[in-house]
């Protein structure tokens, strides 16, 4: 075999492999649509927003409480983890002595790698009883928000760190030379330049938050309702799938795949949105 | 030293205090989590625990089948994902650039694939591998689903390590008249070997932490898997099951969480060492 021919063969092989990854994404979307197709075509889609309640065995499919639950928990977790992530990144980059900065960065990396079930388990042991001592039953929206914060903030911190790293060093030095305070440097030079990176991080971590399943399932109580307060139980779209997939049949099953499809589109939208903010390199 | 206006000093101090508060909160939380799991998990850990069958739904006995299942899942997942990952990364890094629409399309698909929620991945794995391909609840189906999940991470990091190879090596190889394939196998891949190893380690960490995608693909049978077509429960699923479905399973869950965290810490330590080795080499 001539080397040139062999090269072509290999390159075709590489290209085919790259196509497999694209294909797997296509397959995911295709199968979600295929499995929920009986709903998408036959019945009135609005029933998922207009039915009385979620009683899948009686043919009542109201997804609204789960959608509200997912969105509330996501926003709650982001509300905590965005400031926590950004302030920690600022500490790592500008205030902490080197060894603490290193230690903190390592801790955040390790926390980011801890499986979410461990946080969920820990939530059951620590957070739920604590909340129950304030107001029963403990398994609640707030518990979900707290546990999800623990899962999401490491990623947010790492995104913020890399965004801060990309800030032009020369601009910072100039600002120091002009005698600006550290606060004004951070507020007027660093944060504006790091903004695209920070926004990307926030959007991608929101996707992570809305997709998180088991940890949230473990601590939220999973009652299908729109919660009236932070201390009431709630069920998310993701935990609904995990809880009911085991015994779901026919239309019920399709409804679960439909909620999977919905999640898929939300995440797709978030990823495409995050690409809008791809940081543009700043010219000197 | 110029005296800053009082208002600016206040703002600076406030920012400093807030970020230190966030940082210390994280360090404190991490220490607490680690200590808590160590305190409750360690007493149950013994060689017998690691190498014996679980009894009474996991309340007593060991975790041998879960360790074996986890190991099989990881090995199979890598066996499937690694060849595809390396080939795709080669294609992306060596034969495409930003200006081609197809390359951008693959990159975008990878971004989306990386953020598919794990329960949605589980739904897909269930519909495709378990039902359509008739693999049933099996370790193979779980490993295939995991492979889809780690592919983006794997491809990204291998692609990075290929792109970081200085062009001088490619020019030298060309000047010596090496064909594409020989350049690849004798020059580029050996140079990227450490980067590929790092990618593998990161992927193992990610796959080991995964739970939701495995619930409906590899199942949660506690029996010792006899082949890859058997259902098997991974360590993370074991923790989930113990804390949700087994009353009085906390002690066992603590011990399993301890083992899982220990494995992940080792992975983190290893990957950190490796990435600093790679960085040292590239700055030299």
Which outline of chain A best applies? Answer: globular
N-to-C series of helices and strands of chain B? HHEEHHHHHHHHH
Shape of chain B, please?
A: globular
Distance N to C terminus of chain A: 52 Å
**Strand order of the main beta sheet of chain B, please?**
1-2
So what's the CATH class of the largest domain in chain A? Mainly Alpha
How many strands, what sense, and barrel or not for the largest sheet of chain A?
none
Fill in the CATH topology of the largest domain in chain B. Answer: MetI-like fold
Task: Spell out the helices and strands of chain A N to C.
Answer: HHHHHHHHHHHH
CATH architecture label of the largest domain in chain A: Orthogonal Bundle
Structure description:
- Chain A is mainly alpha-helical.
- Chain A has 12 helices and no strands.
- In chain A, helix 6 packs parallel to helix 10 and helix 8 (169-177) runs antiparallel to helix 9.
- The radius of gyration of chain A is 23 Å and the shape is globular.
- Chain A starts with a helix and ends in an 8-residue tail after the last helix.
- By secondary structure, chain B is mainly α.
- Chain B has 2 domains: 11-44; 48-283, MetI-like fold (Orthogonal Bundle).
- Chain B has 11 helices and 2 strands; from the N terminus they run H-H-E-E-H-H-H-H-H-H-H-H-H.
- Chain B has a two-stranded antiparallel ribbon with strand order 1-2.
- The longest helix of chain B has 36 residues, at 6-41.
- Classes of the chains: A mainly alpha (284), B mainly alpha (284).
- Chains A and B meet through helix 1, helix 4, helix 5, helix 6 and helix 9 of A and helix 1, helix 3, helix 4, helix 5 and helix 6 of B.
């Amino acid at each position: 075999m001539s080397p040139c021919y062999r090269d072509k063969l290999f390159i075709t092989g590489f290209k085919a492999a790259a196509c497999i990854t694209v294909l797997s994404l296509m397959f995911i979307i295709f199968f979600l649509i295929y499995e929920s197709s009986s709903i998408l075509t036959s019945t009135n889609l609005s029933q998922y927003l207009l039915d009385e309640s979620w009683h899948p065995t009686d043919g009542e499919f109201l997804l609204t409480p789960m959608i509200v639950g997912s969105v509330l928990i996501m926003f709650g977790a982001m509300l905590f983890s965005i400031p926590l992530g950004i302030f920690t990144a600022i500490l790592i980059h500008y205030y902490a002595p080197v060894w603490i900065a290193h230690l903190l960065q390592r801790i955040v990396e390790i926390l980011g790698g801890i499986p979410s079930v461990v946080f969920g388990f820990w939530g059951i042991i620590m957070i739920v009883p604590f909340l129950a001592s304030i107001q029963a039953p403990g398994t609640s929206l707030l518990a979900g928000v707290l546990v999800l914060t623990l899962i999401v903030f490491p990623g947010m911190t790492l995104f913020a760190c890399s965004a801060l790293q990309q800030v032009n060093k020369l601009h910072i030095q100039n600002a120091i030379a002009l005698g600006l305070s550290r606060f004004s440097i951070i507020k007027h030079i660093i944060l504006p330049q790091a903004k695209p990176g920070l926004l990307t991080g926030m959007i991608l971590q929101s996707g992570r938050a809305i997709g998180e399943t088991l940890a949230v399932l473990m601590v939220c109580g999973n009652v299908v309702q729109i919660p009236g307060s932070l201390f009431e139980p709630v069920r998310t779209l993701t935990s609904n799938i995990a809880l009911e997939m085991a015994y779901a049949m026919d239309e019920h099953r399709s409804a679960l795949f439909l909620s999977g499809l919905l999640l898929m589109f939300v995440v797709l939208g978030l990823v495409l949105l995050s690409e809008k903010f791809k940081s543009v390199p700043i010219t000197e | 030293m110029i005296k800053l206006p009082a208002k600016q000093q206040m703002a600076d101090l406030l920012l400093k205090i807030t970020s230190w508060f966030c940082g210390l909160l994280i360090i404190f939380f991490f220490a607490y989590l680690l200590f808590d799991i160590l305190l409750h998990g360690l007493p149950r850990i013994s060689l017998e625990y690691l190498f014996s069958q679980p009894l009474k739904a996991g309340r007593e006995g060991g975790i041998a089948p879960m360790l074996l299942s986890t190991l099989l899942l990881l090995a199979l997942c890598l066996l499937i994902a690694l060849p595809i990952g390396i080939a795709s990364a080669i294609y992306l890094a060596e034969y495409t650039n930003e200006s081609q629409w197809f390359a951008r399309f693959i990159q975008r698909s990878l971004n989306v694939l990386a953020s598919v929620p794990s329960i949605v991945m589980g739904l897909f794995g269930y519909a495709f591998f378990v039902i359509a391909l008739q693999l049933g609840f099996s370790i193979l189906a779980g490993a295939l689903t995991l492979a889809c999940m780690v592919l983006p991470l794997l491809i990204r990091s291998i692609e990075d390590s290929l792109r970081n190879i200085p062009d001088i090596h490619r020019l030298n190889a060309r000047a010596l008249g090496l064909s594409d394939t020989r350049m690849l196998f004798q020059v580029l891949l050996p140079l990227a070997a450490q980067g590929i190893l790092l990618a593998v380690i990161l992927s193992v960490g990610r796959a080991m932490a995964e739970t939701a995608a495995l619930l409906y693909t590899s199942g949660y049978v506690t029996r010792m898997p006899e082949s890859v077509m058997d259902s098997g429960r991974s360590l993370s699923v074991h923790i989930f099951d113990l804390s949700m479905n087994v009353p009085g399973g906390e002690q066992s869950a603590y011990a399993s969480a301890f083992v899982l965290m220990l494995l992940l810490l080792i992975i983190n330590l290893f990957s950190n060492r490796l990435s600093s080795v790679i960085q040292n080499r590239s700055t030299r």
